[in-house]
Amino acid sequence: MICVVKPFRPNSIVQLILVGFTLAVLPLVVALLYAVVSVDRLAEQSERVVTHAVKATQGSRALIEQITQMERNVRQYQVLMDDGLLQAYEENRQQYVVTLKWLDELPLPDPLSHLLEQLMVEEAEFYAHMHAEQQVKVSQHFAQNLFMSLSIKAQNVLEQSQALIDAEVEGNRDSAQQTQHTLLIQASALVPLALLLLIFFVVIITRPLQRLDEAIRRLGAGDFTQPVALSGPRDLQQLGERLDWMRGRLLEVDEEKLRFLRHLSHELKTPLTTLREGSELLREEIPGALTAQQREIVELLCLNGVQLQRLIEDLLKFNSISQRGSLILNLEVVQLHELVTTLVEEYRVVVMARQIRFELALEQVGLMGDCDKLRGVVDNLLSNAIKFSPPGGTIHVVLTAQAKQLQLDVIDQGPGIAEAQRSRIFEPFYQGSAPYTGHVKGSGLGLSIASEYVQAHGGTIAAIQDDAGAHMRVTLPLQQELT
């Protein structure tokens, strides 16, 4: 039976962070433990070696003193023949033997151990010779030569002990340098390894979070076409599944909304056509003459009928754009300055009633575009400017051509657009907080449809920051200039 080992997959993002942190820190912990063990071993070794060397030096000095004392005792005994001096010699000799044995137990190099052995043998021979019955009185020349030899050897022991200290200190210094070099090599290898592991886990952790952020942004922007699939820890996978479920529900809601708008707009269009035809007949006084008050009411009916029709047409246009996904342009040469002038003239009655004045600064500009859609863009900008302009206000319309693009600016003297709302006014159904005094409130689709039309022509539309009033700017490429 083959056993398949499953790869480790953390259950949560917290567990993944803990694993990554542990693996990233582990090399540094290993290096730190190795440094601690190495320094501790080096310190222990240094302490042991130096202790032995110091003991060897102390013992060597003690030997020299003890040999001197034994020589003095022997010489005095040879002169005075006092048994007390012989007893003192015996005591000093016992200390001498103890010192030699103590030194011999130390881990000393072979030359130094050989010297200690010679000191032990020579003194033992002298002691045996001195206690022989026929040699009770040892010659001064023999004793002098013996103790001189012992002193020289003891001095050699001292010198070698001091040399041993120097050698051990130098050895410890070399060991410390070697340990330092090893630690530097480990640090130069383990620190980059830890950083690489840290970067690796940061990428692993942030990548699914970035995908999550992208998925949320797509959903927020109304893009429900791409499924949400997140890799990584199980909690993120589960979150991705929930987001994908929400995407499906939003897609269903969006389709239901479009279906509702389509039915609603068609259902409203038929009775509205009848109402407009009836109001037009009244305005033309087909049923009979109207009084001034009646004419004013009929004009109001006609005006609001036009506004309601524009709202319904916006719904139909938005529904068409949503279903197609892309616009089909019927390109032709459009004289944009003439189009603007025509639309301004169509609003003449409305602006006169509110005492609003247009100031036009139009250059003669022609471009390749869809006339109906460009008309819808300009009509929407002019309509919004009229809606929010105060009575007696002025609307500036400026059309200029620069290099390979044209620029259309519509500026009113109304309340303007709040800075926080400028990025949202082109969203479908979004309506700003600016006060509106008309009889029929807009649907919030006009600027969204205008933005789609402008983008289909390869241009941009934006709300420009201004001191007073709203300032809308449309930029379109001049694909073909009028000659």
CATH fold assignment of the largest domain: Four Helix Bundle (Hemerythrin (Met), subunit A)
- Report the average pLDDT across residues: 76
Low-confidence stretches: none
Shape: rod-shaped
Number of helices: 10
Helix content: 55-70%
Backbone CA Rg? 54 Å
What is the CATH class of the largest domain?
Mainly Alpha
Characteristics of this structure?
two-stranded antiparallel ribbon, Helix Hairpins, 483 residues, alpha+beta, Four Helix Bundle (Hemerythrin (Met), subunit A), 9% strand, 5-stranded mixed beta sheet, Heat Shock Protein 90, 66% helix
Task: Report on this structure.
The protein is α+β, with helices and mostly antiparallel strands. The protein folds into 3 domains: 13-200, Four Helix Bundle (Hemerythrin (Met), subunit A) (Up-down Bundle), CATH 1.20.120; 248-325, Helix Hairpins (Orthogonal Bundle); 327-483, 2-Layer Sandwich (Heat Shock Protein 90). 66% of the residues lie in helices and 9% in strands. The chain contains 10 helices and 7 strands. The chain has helices at 13-80, 83-104, 110-130, 140-220, 234-283, 292-324, 336-346, 348-353, 371-388, 446-456; strands at 331-335, 357-362, 366-370, 394-402, 405-411, 460-464, 471-477. The strands form 2 sheets. A 5-stranded mixed beta sheet has the order 2-4-5-7-6. A two-stranded antiparallel ribbon has the order 1-3. Strand 4 (394-402) and strand 5 (405-411) form a beta hairpin. Helix 5 runs antiparallel to helix 6. The radius of gyration is 54 Å and the shape is rod-shaped. The relative contact order is 0.07. The model has no long low-confidence stretch (mean pLDDT 76).
